Amino acid sequence: MAEKKESSELPTTAPVVEKQTTKDSGSFIAEKHVTDSDADSVIENSEGVTEHELATLRHVRDKIPWASFSVAAVEFAERWTYYGTANLFANYIRAPLPPGSTTGAVPRANRANGIAGALGLGQQKSFAIRTFNSFFLYVTPFLGAIIADTKWGRYKTICVFTVVILLGHIILVASATPSVIATPNTSLGLLVFAILVMAIGAGSIKSNIAPLIAEQYQGKLRKETLKSGEEVIVSPSITIQSIYLYFYMAVNFGSAGAISAPFLARNHGFWAAFLVPTLIFATVPIILWWGRNHYIKTPPRGSIILETFRVIGVCMSAVWSYNPITMVRNMRSSTFWDPAKPSFHAGREMPPKITWDEQFVGEVQRTISACKVFLFFPVFWLCYSQIDGNLTTVAAGMKLNGTPNDLVLNLNPISIIIIVPIFERVLYPFLRRMGINFSPIKRISAGFFVAGLSMVYAAVLQHYIYITSPCDNKRPSECQDANKNPNPSHISVWVVAGPYILVGISEIFANITAIEYAYTKAPKRMKSVVTAFSQLQTAIANALNFALVDVNVEEKFQWLFASFAITSCTVAVIFYFTFQELDRAEVQLNQIGTGERDGFKGEERRDDI
């Protein structure tokens, strides 16, 4: 990935005309009227690139710095340890101890269709605890984001909370030892405590890893001559897009690394399955220490959250109306942000509450615009949550032939690992060569639609499992023969691969683009907070899942999946038509807040924080 720039082409366009299509990074197309003087004007914060060059030269990505891969290694280990434990929670909580087992392991004679288990609390309690785990994990990013942006900086925040995660894993291993499993209430209490500790740690580093990995790249929009003599535009936007595609692939390598966990639990018990991720995560402090003098670190800027709310308050005060229709109309006005700008008060006495400059108002506006995009994501994460839990139960009612039912969870990261290079090297460059504008908004819309298709597949599959199960109680996962052995549907467990692969494709379209959007649209001082806000949508989805506990039972899976399918496809259309205009302002949004501020050039420095 650090090789000579990849030729992600944009076709050479015709000479500048009065009405011209401006292209940047294959990320958007915006129509604008261009005069001769406009064509010669230099793009702000670029290295001398003009509007005409931006529109007519082919765009390529830059080299990816090695430090980015070092940061990705941290998330690789974190995801291995997360999925190496969370993927086992469904069986650990739902299913009882197999006969004769003290660790949750399945006796060798019953491993063909046997399922590891421990606490035997059933599907609904298992779903509730797993949903709480995911909910809390995606609430805590705000803790790490605020600490990083205001006090410690991203690097130190990641280091501190890495220790917290390691402590949580040690508690988790203790909860699954045979002597503790023998007293289920103690085991459950330690499990929940471990979930809390690990969620605080993992959530707090999640909001900082993604910005830290991208800010290792410091390139600007520039023109370069290749060995062939061709002049090209080296595009930071394409480079950031590629960084996050490979970052997400590394994350899913870690997720797929947990493929051993179901076998460890089935063959050796849950304590052994939880111990392996703990040992892997113990390598993370070593990686962070090794790279401490090499990372580009954005120093904390002090609390700007209060200042942000003051900007919003000034603008809201200016448009306030008791008529809600008028209020909404005023808030949607193009002049909404003007009262907070110092230039708005030129020639008059400056209100004492305005202590910021013009650029900061632009940063707040940009942050709000980015955050509005993320508000649609709970629907996407509701679909994703089904592969994280309920589809494991679906698999338990299918013919396993020696395959642990929770092994199928790994089909999702494996599919992403395979598909990401195809998208980055083949699909996206092909679309750019063809002049097709597959913008961030279009990519996210496609992600919602494909997530909906995955739920269509799941609903149809569940229907056929119902009618082929030997039991008529609509709970195929609990079906047993006269000898109390599992008696599943004759449908092979591998048929359930469809939803996992489709959700993987939807993640590449929607989730990777959301990570990219959070980084490129957030001001440098607020990148962790905006990233945390994007991750909060997963917590909101899990809160909605809490409200759906009564329908998260196996006999209602078919209609649950169908409802999510209809909702996600509908939201895909609404999302596109709501935000399609944002693509037209992509260059301006990406340039706000990238200049020099507060005495730090580019706001970066290389030192220990």
Summarize the structure in words:
- With 609 residues, the chain is mainly alpha-helical.
- It folds into two domains: 66-296 and 367-595, Up-down Bundle (Growth Hormone, Chain: A); 305-356, no CATH class.
- The chain has 22 helices and five strands.
- The protein has helices spanning 36-40, 51-56, 66-94, 123-137, 141-152, 154-175, 178-181, 184-214, 236-257, 260-268, 270-281, 284-290, 305-319, 324-331, 358-374, 377-396, 411-433, 440-468, 497-521, 527-547, 557-579, 586-591; strands at residues 19-24, 28-33, 58-60, 222-225, 231-234.
- α5 packs antiparallel against α20, α10 crosses α11 and α16 packs antiparallel against α19.
- It is globular.
- Mean pLDDT is 81; it is low at 1-34 and 592-609.
- One of its GO terms (cellular component) is plasma membrane.
- The chain crosses the membrane at residues 127-148, 160-181, 187-205, 243-264, 270-291, 407-427, 448-467, 491-517, 529-548, 560-579.
- It comes from Favolaschia claudopus.
- This is Peptide/h+ symporter protein.
Index terms:
single chain, 609 residues, mainly alpha, Growth Hormone, Chain: A, 2 domains, three-stranded mixed beta sheet, two-stranded antiparallel sheet, 22 helices, 5 strands, globular, disordered N terminus, disordered C terminus, Peptide/h+ symporter protein, membrane, MFS_trans_sf
Quickly describe the structure:
Helices cover 59% and strands 4% of the residues. It has 609 residues and is mostly helical.
